[in-house]
Design brief:
Number of domains: 2
Structural class: alpha+beta
Radius of gyration: 19 Å
Strand order of the largest sheet: 1-7-6-4-5
Order of helices and strands: EEHHEHEHEHEEEEHEHEHHHEEEE
Number of strands: 15
Number of helices: 10
CATH architecture of the largest domain: 3-Layer(aba) Sandwich
Shape: globular
Distance between the termini: 22 Å
CATH class of the largest domain: Alpha Beta
Bound molecules: acetyl coenzyme *A
Helix content: 25-40%
CATH topology of the largest domain: Peroxisomal Thiolase, Chain A, domain 1
């Protein structure tokens, strides 16, 4: 029987207008453009303005994705939002996004750090494969800057805010999600976490005084984990799809640190040309990182109809998630209202 796969038919992104450069950060903490560029590859990142909320950013990206797919919000059967920086602790962001879009479908949120959007895509694939839903919005959005300690130079230089979204719909033509791998190693949770503000260590004067409501990270441990997972997950998902690494037209790695990607490319004996990079402009946008890179790769003509794309994310958990995607064949090339080329069927 032909397998029903989740194929990407629409895409959109939203990036806040405010830019924080390495020099801006050097005026705030003891760092420099040279250090950040050499150790991470990041030159600048965007951070939310006072008008941006997790919901508003997700909605902007989603409206573009709906437009490219030729759908209206009421056509949606499901909304999945990958996010770890909600507007409110309760309810989760997906409900606010559903209401703001004017959709009437079910909506839920996946919190799996930077791996969240690939987890969400794999979840959408299940609903498509079983025939339960046809039109699914999959969003990755983060205002990670709210959880950054701008006195801690080891974390505040790495992250930025963004949103990106895709529409997936069923395909019987061998296009869409060909394979995926999801993973978790909770034994390493403490390497990247926010120690205060939850039920174990609720918000208190002590939590605020000790800055425990901000992200704490053991950068070197996360770095080693990231290189290992980028390498093994990419091998696993291509094998699962019946492909080799050479069959991939483009690889979209989580945009955390250029050195992590370079180390993985070396282990895999792959040219860096095969990897899409936009982290110099945005830093690590957590759950928005992979979809933002995917959208920009499409917009920049780095992904063509019929191409096979490998994506791997890693992050807090520690978690990882990868997927192989075959892009749809073209029927038309139309421009959307904001200039996005539509290159899918
Ligand atoms: N500017 C200047 N110096 C710095 C800075 C900075 N911003 N940050 C750290 N340093 C110093 C350190 O204090 C240390 O100084 P010392 O030798 O005097 O003690 C020195 O630089 C080297 O520090 P390292 O931690 O060894 O630097 P490293 O090369 O490992 O780079 C980094 C640090 C960039 C954090 C790296 O470890 C990394 O990228 N790790 C992965 C992080 C990551 O990807 N996290 C996100 C995961 S995704 C998610 O779900 C959120």
């Amino acid at each position: 029987m032909t397998k029903r796969r989740a194929r990407i038919t629409g895409w959109g992104k939203y990036v806040p207008a405010k830019v924080l450069t390495n020099d801006d950060l050097a005026a705030m903490v003891d760092t420099s453009d040279e250090w950040i560029t050499a150790r991470t590859g990041i030159k600048e990142r965007h951070v939310r303005t006072e008008n941006d909320t997790t919901t508003s950013m997700a909605v902007q990206a989603s409206l573009d994705a709906l437009h490219v797919a030729g759908l209206n919000p009421e056509d949606l059967h499901l909304i999945i939002v990958a996010n770890s920086s909600p507007d409110y602790l309760l309810p989760a962001p997906a409900n606010f996004v559903q209401h703001a879009l004017g959709a009437s479908c079910p909506a839920f949120t996946i919190a799996a750090g930077c791996s969240g959007w690939v987890y969400a895509l794999a979840t959408a694939q299940q609903f498509i494969a079983t025939g339960v839903y046809q039109n699914i919005l999959v969003v990755g959005v983060e205002i990670i800057s709210y959880a950054l300690d701008y006195t801690d130079r080891t974390t505040c230089i790495l992250f930025g805010d963004a949103a990106a979204a895709v529409i997936v719909q069923p395909s019987l033509d061998g296009e869409g999600v060909l394979a995926f791998e999801l993973g978790s190693d909770g034994s390493q949770a403490h390497h990247l976490w926010v120690p205060g503000g939850g039920t174990v260590n609720p918000v208190s004067q002590k939590v605020v005084d000790q800055r425990e409501h901000y992200i704490r990270m053991n950068g070197q441990e996360v770095f080693k984990f990231a290189v290992r997972k980028l390498t093994t997950c990419l091998r696993n998902i291509t094998a699962q799809a019946g492909l080799t690494l050479d069959d991939l037209d483009l690889i979209i790695p989580h945009q955390a640190n250029l050195r992590i990607i370079e180390a993985a490319a070396k282990h895999l004996d792959l040219s860096m040309d095969k990897f899409f990079i936009n982290l110099h402009k945005y830093g690590n946008t957590s759950a928005a990182s992979i979809p933002l890179a995917l959208v920009e790769a499409i917009e920049e003509g780095r992904i063509h109809p019929g191409d096979t794309v490998g994506m791997v994310a890693f992050g807090s958990g520690l978690s990882w998630a990868g997927a192989v995607l075959k892009m749809g064949m073209p029927v038309a090339s139309v421009l959307t209202h904001n200039g996005h080329a539509r290159a899918n069927a």
